[in-house]
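Report of the visiting student (M.T.), summer placement. My assignment was to run the structure pipeline on a short list of targets and document each run. The first record concerns Ribonuclease M5.
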Amino acid sequence: MKIKEVIIVEGRADTEALRHAVSADTIETNGSALGEQTIAAIKQAAATRGVIIFTDPDFNGERLRKLISEFVPEAKHAFLTKDEAGRQIRHHSLGIEYATPSVLRDALQSVYTAETVTAKSDITLADLRRLGLIAGHDAAKRREHVAEVMGLGYVNGKQLMNRLTMFGIKKQALLEVLQELDEEK
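After the run finished, the structure tokens were exported:
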């Protein structure tokens, strides 16, 4: 599988893992600190080939994703869940480098692009509360299911709202995912 866009990753181990899964060029940020040269390279890649932000599903990865998105709002986003990123194998470490090649390929085939202002989500925070995705005893489990099925990566309540909005996901699609979950019980 060949990826046209340049994939933005955190480090060398992520690049190596991707090389086992796909044919792609990467830009390594070397952690969550973005230097001027790295920012310039990301902007250049975005202007010429497009970029996919593919960071670890942890605090630093999410922070880095947010920073890069400020510089390149048209970037595409690929996500892994914590389990896909090796949480079950390595209890304290997780990252792209621990994902299997097939999981990496699946994530890169399910990228999201931030929608324009005119294509906003119709989901509100009140909807998320009412649907048991925020502030309920099963909220974390329900959010994890939604994020996994929709390919949104790890999210807390605030991140879920942001991603649903950013990607223009509609309430009907969310309700369908939750209906499947409720039917499984």
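Helices lie at 12-19, 36-48, 59-71, 101-109, 125-130, 139-150, 157-166, 171-184. The chain has a mean pLDDT of 87. I thank the supervising group for their guidance throughout the placement.
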